[in-house]
Write a structure and sequence with these properties.
Blueprint (H helix, E strand, L loop, with lengths): L1 H5 L4 H18 L3 H7 L1 H4 L4 H8 L8 H9 L2
Helix pairs in contact: 2-3
Protein name: Adenylosuccinate lyase C-terminal domain-containing protein
Organism: marine metagenome
InterPro entries: AdenyloSucc_lyase_C (IPR019468), L-Aspartase-like (IPR008948)
Length: 74
């Protein structure tokens, strides 16, 4: 979302694109990353290198313990 707004989209437009991709991923059981990589609207703003950095960054897993703790806290 943030990457799209940094490329010139409004927050509302970026949210709509990401929400649509997330819904499609959920409904089709396809990976969110695959949906994002093939989205023609996203490709207008983010190239393959941009997407790889966002989707496959090691930074995503650096907080995995916190994410799981928060998600499964009882």
């Amino acid at each position: 979302l943030l990457a799209l707004t940094q490329k010139g989209l409004s927050r509302q437009e970026a949210y709509k694109i990401i929400q649509s991709a997330a819904t499609k991923s959920f409904n089709t059981k396809n990976r969110f990353e695959d949906i994002i990589e093939e989205d023609t609207e996203i490709k207008k703003y983010l190239n393959k290198t941009d997407l790889e950095k966002l989707l496959y960054s090691e930074n995503k897993i650096s907080h995995i313990d916190d994410i799981f703790r928060e998600a499964f806290e009882t």
